[in-house]
Design goal:
253 residues; alpha+beta; Glutaredoxin; 2 domains; seven-stranded mixed beta sheet; three-stranded antiparallel beta sheet; 9 helices; 21% strand; elongated
Length: 253
């Protein structure tokens, strides 16, 4: 980890603007050589480019120090990049997928996943009523947190329309337990740790971010009716306003 530290106080400019005294950009790489190549690349950038990199990835300038604990750094794909977290579209682009994408009008793939409350959620258990299944890249990162909070804020309205909202990621259940409790989320959080469901919905594939490629989950949402048919599919989701848009689509069914 390389850290740029502005000692003791903030200075005129971005540190004063955002009220921060320390700025860290963190990325996990598979090899030391890859890390050094990336470091040399970023060092060539001017300051506005570096700030834009962080602002786009962490628009709220959330303090992510707690998320960069050594105990969390187990898999390289989990922390690319860790400091910036993930913004509304993760600052990245899905360049391809290993599986066919599910579109409106198609039957939703069957699924059965463990949930954060020690239970399970399945397509069979949700049959007969509409539901929302949204996929997000990683629990407790800025964009994914905002998305969960936005859906939670509208939870009563989704329930009034007869729909269950399920958020799915490849995070383990224990991490989802912490995520849900930390932000008091009102949606069902499901763990697709094996990756079968993300693959079936075509939201697992190669992504690119600032010249790097890696495998990850696309931020995507599916509105599924009581007969199990996908009525709307949102791909490469931008978080802001998305939950309200999904609610409006549900209410128009």
């Amino acid at each position: 980890m390389r850290a740029g530290q502005h000692k003791a106080k903030t200075f005129k400019g971005f540190t004063s603007r955002y009220g921060v005294a320390r700025l860290v950009w963190f990325e996990r790489h598979a090899t030391r050589d890859a890390a050094f190549r990336r470091e040399r690349q970023i060092k060539k950038w001017n300051r506005p480019w570096k700030l834009r990199l962080i602002e786009e990835s962490n628009p709220d300038w959330k303090d992510l120090a707690e998320e960069i604990r050594l105990g969390d750094l187990k898999d390289a794909e989990d922390w690319i990049p860790a400091f910036a977290g993930m913004s509304g579209n993760e600052g990245s682009e899905m360049t391809g997928s290993e599986n066919a994408q599910i579109e409106a009008g198609q039957p939703a793939p069957a699924f059965d996943m463990a949930t954060s409350d020690g239970g399970r959620v399945s397509s069979a258990s949700l049959s007969g009523k509409p539901y929302v299944l949204y996929f997000y890249p990683k629990a407790d990162t800025p964009g994914c947190t905002s998305e969960g909070q936005d859906f939670s804020a509208l939870a009563d309205q989704f329930a009034a329309a007869g729909a269950t909202v399920v958020g799915a990621s490849r995070d383990p259940v224990k991490k989802l337990d912490r995520f849900k409790a930390k932000y008091d989320l009102k949606v069902v959080l499901a763990s697709d740790e094996p990756g079968d469901v993300t693959a079936a919905f075509g939201v697992w594939g190669e992504k690119s971010m600032y010249g790097r490629t890696y495998m990850g989950v696309e931020r995507a949402t599916f509105l599924i009716d009581g007969a199990g048919v996908v009525r709307r599919a949102w791909r490469k989701v931008r978080v802001k306003g998305h939950a309200a848009e999904v609610l409006a689509a549900l209410q128009s069914l």
